Amino acid sequence: MQESAVNRLLSGQFSVALEKAWQVFKHQAALSDRRPAIRFSAELLPAYYPSEVTGVEVNAVSNYTLKTSLSALSGSQGIMPRAMFQEALSAHFDLGEQAPIDFFDTFNNRYFRLYCQVQHKHDLTAQIEEASFGWNRHRLSVTGMLANLAGQSGHENPIPDSHLIQYTGLLGMKLTCPLALKAMLEDYFSAEFAIERSALEYLPLTPCSLTQIGKTGQNRQLGMGALVGKTTPMAGQKLKIKICPRDYEHYLAIRHDNAMIRALDHLVRSYMGVNTKYALYMKVNSEYLPRVKLSGRSDSALRIGQSAWMNHQTDRRQYVEMPLTFSEENA
Q1: CA–CA separation, 108 vs 114, rounded Å?
Q2: Cβ–Cβ contacts within 10 Å for residue 104, how many?
Q3: How many CB atoms are located within 10 Å of the residue 227 CB?
Q4: Does the chain have fewer CB atoms within 10 Å around its N or its C terminus?
Q5: DSSP-derived secondary structure for 130-194
Q6: Is the alpha carbon torsion for 163, 168, 169, 170 positive or negative?
Q7: How far is Cα 37 from Cα 307, in angstroms, rounded to an integer?
Q8: How far apart are CA 324 and CA 265, in angstroms?
């Protein structure tokens, strides 16, 4: 059985950064459903220390004191004048008086806490861990702040905000790319996707794009901002997004997972925006689909192109693109 990280730190045989050790003990406290009781103390004597954490003292069940070799107010690399710190050392070693050292360690403890917080400031992994601790629930988590920044916040989103933190850089950009969308969908849903863009088509001009004449006019440079006519040629304005099941079990899971379809639709709309039209399909191996049968019930009968298909004799593998929609009554 693997030894716990806390026991490995207590043994003092491993080199570890101070902020990482602090994070380990916070996880240990979270498992016990209590707040972490951790203090920091600076090493007194100058020496070579191979690790930032030089020792761990256990005062109670979950009360720990981390000894560190980093510079602070006092200690082996302290910025305090040597004469003042020498008096504290003399009181400690000659008289056995711990009060001066404890007094200076109060400032060291505060400094090391701020130091660890600064080290975690730009570490998204550490920030996500902080949001999971019960004693930090009153603070707005980094996942919530990044979701607000990317415009993905909401109370009824099919995808939790914490799931989108790794895609915040893409969701927050004004530019969109089908290749980036494909990579994002494949990473989140762990499935193969295929995205087809529409060919060249003529779309009607919006009122803000129409050429205006006069002093208040705009778009006066023909070919640059001015357009003659009522339509304009555009390419790639519609997307055909297809999910490709790995096997028959995956096909059944997608077909009956209404929440996944809603999450897929939400992620695509969040990235592409509201101006790009798209349609969701499932590219299914024809062998997975039942054959057409006659039925007298229109509500439960098999439908060509949706739940069944009509094939012809061939040795080649064929695929059917089925529309992927979710039912509102189960939403």
Answers
A1: 10
A2: 22
A3: 15
A4: N
A5: HHHSGGGTTSPPHHHHHHHHTT---SS-SS-GGGGGGGHHHHT-S---HHHHHHHHHHHH-SEEE
A6: positive
A7: 59
A8: 10
- What is d(CA 197, CA 235) in angstroms, rounded to the nearest whole number? 8
Residue 125 structure tokens = 């992994």
CA neighbor of 75 nearest in space, from 116, 47, 36, 114? 47
pTM of the model: 0.54
Q: If DSSP codes are grouped into helix, strand and coil, which group holds residue 304?
A: strand
Domain boundaries, the chain: 5-136, 176-197+238-330
CA 216 to chain CA centroid, nearest Å:
47
Task: Give the C-alpha separation, 98 to 38, whole Å.
Answer: 19
